[in-house]
Design goal:
By secondary structure, the protein is an alpha+beta fold. Helices cover about 40% and strands about 20% of the residues. The longest helix has 29 residues.
Length: about 425
């Protein structure tokens, strides 16, 4: 929708004040890119600001577009006029290999979280709208997504220790533009928003055609929100199943087969997916087809590898452990988490390195059998070395004064996902 086509909506501001009311008196961070959605969010918040509510604004410059610097300066000028603190956050040390869009998204949330902690902010607000919900639905539908991918994004979520809020999820992008034009406010359009080589832009264009058949933003976003409600029910069932059948032993996750095998297939699939993601420390879960291969295996006794995990089964348990080959070359410092999940603590503060125990290491641990853990679990566990000398292997019972602790257990991981 162009600025010339936009018109002001009378009830729009009243609705938005209702969305903002729970944050009255809070220290609110606002992520503002300079585009219409985020500028509208900022203007709405400035107009609503009440009861000692205070605002801080940040603009993330990923360094990927030449226009980004000018956009950040544009936001800075608006903030100066409104006497609101503004900071440009720069992605200057990023690993830009792999999926660039995913890397940029991850960097954006990390930078915003660091900024929010520095200013003791209560929340950071994002300007996602119902249009974003509909576009994401279509993107994930094209990827044959299930209920997770088709569900509307959460209005509130936690990442890097910070609460992020999307107060405008039920509002149309067009309504935000009408509001800006009605106030004589300007914004800067990102040229990539009209570039059809981007999948999201393709879906944005598709939405215009679908709306002619009654499948526009309102209809699609309504379905996405309904699916989100259904997802909550499934997540609750998965949590209850986990409480009954999951146990943890020295980094391994055990699933009791008797009750697990009787549970609905979707709950079993979701639980096993989360276990695999937890043990592998992966950012994304394994594909459905791979997980279903394990669940549909009619043989109680099997050994499989999937997504950096070793999955073994007998009539009593399914055991998921870290696959040694996935961590064989992983070397870390003693004072830093190893393989994301482990902290190794002991009397040596420097000079040693943490790496997987391996076959060489386990042969140096005479009491490893007394741990009761499988050999495959132990060789993938963390150990401390100085050169080629084994100093400690806490999980294998080697090394006085050393222990290996899981940073966060599966229960907390499940709550966060």
């Amino acid at each position: 929708m162009s600025k010339d086509q936009a018109r002001q909506s009378g009830s729009f501001e009243v609705r938005c004040e209702h969305y903002f009311q729970p944050f009255s008196g809070k220290r609110i961070g606002v992520a503002v890119s300079g585009g219409g959605d985020s500028i509208a969010l900022l203007k709405l918040l400035v107009n609503w600001q009440s009861n000692s509510t205070s605002l801080w604004v940040a603009t993330v410059d990923h360094g990927l577009r030449p226009e980004a610097k000018a956009e950040a300066e544009f936001v800075g000028r608006i903030c100066r006029d409104a006497k609101i603190p503004h900071k440009t956050l720069t992605w200057d040390r990023a690993d830009r290999s792999g999926n660039l869009q995913n890397a940029a998204r991850s960097a954006r949330y990390r930078l915003l979280a660091e900024w929010a902690r520095d200013h003791s902010l209560d929340v950071v607000m994002l300007a996602h709208t119902a249009n974003d919900v509909a576009e994401t639905f279509l993107l994930n539908l094209a990827r044959s997504a299930g209920i997770d991918g088709l569900s509307a994004m959460n209005a509130e979520f936690h990442q890097h220790g910070i609460t992020f809020v999307r107060p405008l999820l039920h509002e149309r992008r067009e309504a935000l533009r009408r509001y800006l034009v009605g106030r004589g406010a300007d914004w800067m359009e990102d040229p990539s928003n009209d570039d059809p080589t981007f999948d999201r832009v393709k879906m944005r264009m598709l939405l215009r055609d679908l709306s002619q058949a009654g499948l526009g933003v309102d209809a699609i976003s309504a379905s996405a929100f309904a699916l989100r409600d259904s997802r909550v029910v499934v997540q609750t069932g998965t949590r209850e199943l986990a409480d009954r059948v999951v146990s943890e032993i020295s980094g391994d996750v055990l699933i009791t087969r008797s009750e697990f095998d009787e549970a609905p297939f979707e709950l079993r699939r979701r639980l096993l997916t989360r276990v695999l993601q937890y043990v592998s420390s992966a950012h994304y879960p394994p594909r459905h087809a791979a997980t279903e291969k394990i669940l549909r295996n009619t043989d109680y006794r099997f050994v499989m590898t999937l997504g950096g995990c070793l999955v073994t089964s007998d009539q009593q348990f399914i055991r998921v452990t870290r696959e040694f080959s996935a961590v064989a070359d992983l070397i870390g410092e003693i004072d830093a988490p190893w393989d994301t999940r482990w902290n190794v603590l002991g009397p040596l503060s420097q000079g040693g390195k943490v790496r997987a125990l391996g076959e060489t290491g386990i042969n140096l641990c005479p009491k490893w059998r007394e741990t009761g853990l499988p050999r495959a679990s132990l060789i993938a566990s963390p150990s401390v070395w100085i050169g080629e000398t084994l100093v400690a292997a806490p999980v294998a019972g080697f090394g006085t004064g050393w222990e290996a602790q899981i940073v966060a257990n599966f229960s907390s991981f499940l709550d966060a996902h």
